[in-house]
């Protein structure tokens, strides 16, 4: 069953096209990552799905409701949780009062369970909350009515690493229980941690739609090598290295080959330190999608 389906969804603001004929679907019970740099069009898609803005053309269905049918979408939204990037809570209310407000609208059968996992200071007014505490309160309100679908816009923003890990484990448990999660992010590492499938948007266009393992296989690795002494860059470079930068005894590059081949190459040099990590999302776009979007598939 499909929880979300977009068909040529388009939103224009004058001469600017924020979403350009975006087409994909999200299956029930999957964590779908919606990945792109800031300003790529992710939030516009979410606002369209929730009926907060109207499409210029095309359409989408959310839990079977056409986003152009206000009555049907309103009924469907009773079974949707939403964690926006900008939470917009009333600053003078306490955390408890915020949750009470949402409970009156949608229910809160899971409030106690969620507050055992995430611990916003409920008696403090929102104006005194840290960014991380605002995020935890937002997570509780998004899930406490036990929705079938949760839409999350940059959900880990402001959370420290321990709370991020707690949220990732929670999302995996929700997915295993059948909840569909639409997860918007610009951070590759968190998408690879929890998502089953990913759609990549760039400048309003969907440039890729693929399984997360396939995306990671195309991404290469960011590598920093600290050598014992300076080395000639042309001698050190292999065809699998791109964006090579050499400063004194440090060489940085993106490596697109097999890890074993890289390690075999490095044993020929006296190495003080090596650091290998995931590339930044912008690097994946630059090196693997170029200036033209690839066919989604």
Automatic annotation (TrEMBL):
SUPFAM superfamilies given in the database record: P-loop containing nucleoside triphosphate hydrolases
UniProtKB keywords: ATP-binding, Nucleotide-binding, Transport
Molecular function GO labels: ATP binding; ATP hydrolysis activity
InterPro entries named among the record's database cross-references: AAA+_ATPase, ABC_transporter-like_ATP-bd, ABC_transporter-like_CS, ABC_transporter_ATP-binding, P-loop_NTPase
All residue ranges annotated as the ABC transporter domain in the record: 4-228
PROSITE patterns named among the record's database cross-references: ABC_TRANSPORTER_1, ABC_TRANSPORTER_2
Sequence similarity: Belongs to the ABC transporter superfamily.
Matching PANTHER family: ABC TRANSPORTER ATP-BINDING PROTEIN, ABC TRANSPORTER ATP-BINDING PROTEIN NATA
Record-given protein name: ABC transporter, ATP-binding protein
Annotated organism of origin: Natrarchaeobaculum sulfurireducens
């Amino acid at each position: 069953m499909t929880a979300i389906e977009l068909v040529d969804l388009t939103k224009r603001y004058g001469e600017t096209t924020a979403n350009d004929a975006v087409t994909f679907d999200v299956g029930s019970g999957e964590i779908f990552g919606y990945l792109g740099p800031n300003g790529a069009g992710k939030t516009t898609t979410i606002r369209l799905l929730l009926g907060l803005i109207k499409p210029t053309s095309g359409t989408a269905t959310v839990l079977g409701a056409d986003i152009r049918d206000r009555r049907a979408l309103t009924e469907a939204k009773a079974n949707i949780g939403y964690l926006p990037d900008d939470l917009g809570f009333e600053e003078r209310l306490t955390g408890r009062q915020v949750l009470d407000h949402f409970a009156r609208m949608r229910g809160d059968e899971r409030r106690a369970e969620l507050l055992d996992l995430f611990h916003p200071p409920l008696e403090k007014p929102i104006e005194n909350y840290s960014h991380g505490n605002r995020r935890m309160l937002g997570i509780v309100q998004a899930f406490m009515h036990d929705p079938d679908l949760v839409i999350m816009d940059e959900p880990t923003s402001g959370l420290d690493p321990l709370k991020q890990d707690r949220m990732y484990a929670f999302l995996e448990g929700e997915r295993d229980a059948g909840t569909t999660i639409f997860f918007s992010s610009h951070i590759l590492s968190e998408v690879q941690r929890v998502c089953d499938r990913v759609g990549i948007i760039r400048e309003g266009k969907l440039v890729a739609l693929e399984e997360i393992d396939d995306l990671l296989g195309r991404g290469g690795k960011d590598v920093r090598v600290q050598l014992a002494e300076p080395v000639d860059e042309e001698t050190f470079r292999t065809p699998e290295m791109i964006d090579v930068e050499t400063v004194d005894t440090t060489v940085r590059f993106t490596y697109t080959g097999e890890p074993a081949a890289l390690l075999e190459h490095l044993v020929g040099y006296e190495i003080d330190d090596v650091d290998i990590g995931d590339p930044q999302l912008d690097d994946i776009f630059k090196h693997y999608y170029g200036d033209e979007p690839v066919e989604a598939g």
